[in-house]
Write a structure and sequence with these properties.
By secondary structure, this protein is α/β, with parallel strands linked by helices. It is 24% helix and 21% strand. The protein contains 11 helices and 13 strands. The chain has an 8-stranded parallel beta sheet, with no helix packed on it. The chain has a 3-stranded mixed beta sheet with strand order 1-3-4, with no helix packed on it. Strands 8-10 form a two-stranded parallel ribbon.
């Protein structure tokens, strides 16, 4: 549906559609009316909207370049199970936001995709309650203007985030990425004796897909804030063009354990990857960063990553041996 002036919940065209479908609103007004009267934020209740969704049988929704006069009432989506909720070409002038209201029969959303937009990931733009069941988030745009500290706090089922086209260095420097990840794996704390089973079941991938990365050692101090110690690992996919810096090795120290995500960068393909990583003396670099910031380094910082890298090296070696070694054949095997 394109260039529509809103949807009347009484005379909605969606009421006649019985089979599952995907809704796309393009360059439209995403407002709701009842018998021709614009519904305002104060009208967002079941006495007005009724007990069923305005969009019956909907499985996915895409809002592209839409505007709104009033905040979007999530009751329009009640009782729906959406595989995808996509938002395209949004900006601050779109005046689009959700009314954040908890209710028992809230819609569930599996994947949130925001594309070609220029927005703030704040509580006034996204509904925490609507997105509490989100499993996957894809952000495909250049700039994140702002991030609310607790925007992802209720997303207990989130298992990965993909950032495509975003400026990794910028979002590390302005803490946008750290804010997004603040409530992920908060019950996990890694040390040199990390639990291999927990690592395999709890690791959280952040997939970074950009045309060019500039991971240099002169910016190492901003990378030390990436929460590797909470099993949150960055994976640089796409065309990685920077050199084999210590910073790049540091951020990719777990990449050899997860081939399904790992970049094909030449640095990661070398057999002496961990030997070179140890030679970087990451702990010394981190302690020096704290000195530059006039802060006291946390206790144990002088050996934290040295011991951890040795443990990962051992784990990676065992995994490689296990996958390359074939069991000897026997007569029974032949039969």
């Amino acid at each position: 549906f394109s260039n529509t002036n809103g949807i009347d919940i009484v005379n909605s065209p969606f009421n006649k559609i019985k089979s599952p479908y995907m809704l796309s609103l393009i360059m439209a007004q995403a407002d709701f009316y009842k018998n021709g009267q614009l519904l305002k934020e104060s009208d967002c209740n079941k006495q007005v909207y009724g007990e069923t969704s305005v969009f019956k049988n909907m499985q996915a929704v895409s809002f592209e370049n839409v505007t709104a006069l009033s905040p979007f009432c999530p009751l329009a989506l009640q009782k729906l199970h959406l595989s995808v909720f996509q938002m395209v070409l949004f900006n601050e002038k779109s005046n689009f936001s959700f009314i954040d209201m908890p209710f028992a029969d809230q819609a569930t959303v599996s994947s949130l995709i925001i594309t070609d937009s220029n927005v703030s990931l704040t509580n006034s733009f996204l509904s925490k309650s609507l997105l509490k069941n989100v499993e996957e988030i894809r952000l495909e745009f250049d700039d994140i203007l702002n991030v609310s500290k607790d925007i992802f706090k209720e997303m207990k089922h989130l298992y990965n985030i993909t950032l495509k086209g975003t400026n990794f260095n910028k979002h590390m420097q302005n803490n946008a990425l750290q804010m997004m990840l603040e409530h992920v794996n908060t019950d996990v704390k890694m040390d040199s004796n990390f639990d291999v089973e927990t690592l395999s079941t709890r690791f959280f991938p952040v997939l970074l897909d950009d045309k060019k990365y500039d991971i240099t050692d002169d910016k190492f101090c901003i990378y030390k804030e990436f929460p590797l110690d909470r099993y949150i690992f960055p994976f640089f996919i796409g065309q990685v063009q920077n050199k084999c810096t210590c910073a790049f090795r540091f951020l990719n120290m777990f990449s050899t354990l997860y081939k399904e995500y790992a970049s094909s960068h030449e640095c990661l393909m070398k057999s002496d990857f961990y030997e070179q990583l140890l030679a970087c003396d990451i702990d010394k670099k981190i302690v020096e960063c704290y000195k530059q910031e006039n802060k006291a380094a946390p206790a144990g910082s002088d050996q934290k990553y040295t011991n951890l890298i040795k443990s990962i090296t051992s784990m990676a070696t065992k995994k490689k041996t296990k996958t390359t070694t074939k069991a000897p054949t026997t007569d029974e095997d032949d039969y």
